């Protein structure tokens, strides 16, 4: 029963507690009915194991343990991430990344197979250990998948004793919850200032046939608009249609529109600033791009 529920993987302790004798266990190994995956962890087969079987084997090796980080989110990637209580001192094995976690027991769904860290904690763990751009992707994808929602993640965030990015995560989750790109807008303002670009007018009201809208960043004297696309659900057919209609309305008014996302603003801000500077100069800006400490040599305006 146990071995079936665990996808054909069992620990030595489990096998003996279920009534298998030591001699019978050794006979299964010698005859090749079972094979050793890790010390004291066996699979009732020979040949390659599935990711799910290797995940079970990793959890049983460090038992009591649970899948964590990317592995708890259902991503069948390598290495397999396993969490244990913070007080335990264990050695990692190849193919497994071990995480020692405070408040471990309370964060685990023990009824899952294999057990894993609660989804919201796993999402925040991944975000904490990622770059800013990857952290944004982790939080946005978690909410976009409908497996959780921003308010739930904020509650879990508030319950964590330590989180160096707490304030930024809270602002980002608020951004996701409201469906706006406020975090992205704030970062683009920083890019403008760091690189000496003119500061555009934010959220400028604009009228279009039958509706009222707001343009993200408008450089009024230069006839140039930047739309910052950082919202969830921005890739549906209706969203794309609205975006194209906004750009068409701007073109009717002789305004040029460029759309920037998280990659351009938060991942490649310096290079994007250089390109925007060239566009603005073409449209009459007389300023010069200022190089910030992060600018690589090729990002010259």
Main attributes of the structure:
301 residues, alpha+beta, Endonuclease, Chain A, 3 domains, elongated
Task: Give an overview in words.
- With 301 residues, the chain is of the alpha+beta class.
- The protein folds into three domains: 2-105, no CATH class; 121-178, no CATH class; 182-282, Endonuclease, Chain A, CATH 3.40.960.
- Helices cover 45% and strands 18% of the residues.
- It is built from 14 helices and twelve strands.
- The strands form four sheets. The protein has a four-stranded mixed beta sheet.
- Helix 7 runs antiparallel to helix 8 and helix 9 (150-159) runs antiparallel to helix 10.
- It is elongated.
Q: How do the strands and helices of this protein lay out in sequence?
A:
Elements lengths: L1 H4 L3 E3 H6 L4 H10 L3 E4 L2 E3 L7 H11 L4 E2 L1 H4 L7 E6 L10 E6 L2 H4 E2 L6 E2 L1 H10 L3 H13 L5 H10 L6 H13 L3 H13 L6 E8 L2 E9 L4 E5 L8 H16 L3 E5 L1 H6 L1 H14 L19
Parallel strand pairs: 5-6, 11-12
Antiparallel strand pairs: 1-3, 2-3, 4-5, 7-8, 9-10, 10-11
Helix pairs in contact: 7-8, 9-10
């Amino acid at each position: 029963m146990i071995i079936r529920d665990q996808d054909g993987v069992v620990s030595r302790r489990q096998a003996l507690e279920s009534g298998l004798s030591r001699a019978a266990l050794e006979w299964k190994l010698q005859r090749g009915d079972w094979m050793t995956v890790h010390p004291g962890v066996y699979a009732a087969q020979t040949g390659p194991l599935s990711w799910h079987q290797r995940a079970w084997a990793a959890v049983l090796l460090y038992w009591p343990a649970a899948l964590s980080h990317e592995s708890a989110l259902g991503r069948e990637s390598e290495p397999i991430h396993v969490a244990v209580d913070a007080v335990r001192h264990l050695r990692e094995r190849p193919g497994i990344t071990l995480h020692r976690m405070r408040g471990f027991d309370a964060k685990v769904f023990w009824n899952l197979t294999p057990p894993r860290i609660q989804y919201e904690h796993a999402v925040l763990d991944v975000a904490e250990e990622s770059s800013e751009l990857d952290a944004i992707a982790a939080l946005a994808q978690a909410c976009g998948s409908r497996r959780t929602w921003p308010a739930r993640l904020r509650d879990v965030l508030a319950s964590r004793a330590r989180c160096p990015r707490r304030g930024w995560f809270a602002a980002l989750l608020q951004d996701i919850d409201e469906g706006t790109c406020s975090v992205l807008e704030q970062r683009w303002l920083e890019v403008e200032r760091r690189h000496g670009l003119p500061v555009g007018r934010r959220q400028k009201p604009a009228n279009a046939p039958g509706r009222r809208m707001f343009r993200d960043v408008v450089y009024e004297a230069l006839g140039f608009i930047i739309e910052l696309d950082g919202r969830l659900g921005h890739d549906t057919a209706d969203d794309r249609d609205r975006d194209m209609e906004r750009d068409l309305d701007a073109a009717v008014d002789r305004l040029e529109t460029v759309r920037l996302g998280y990659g351009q603003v938060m991942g490649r801000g310096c290079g994007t600033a250089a390109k925007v500077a060239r566009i603005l100069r073409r449209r009459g800006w007389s300023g010069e791009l200022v190089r910030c400490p992060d600018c690589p040599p090729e990002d010259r305006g």
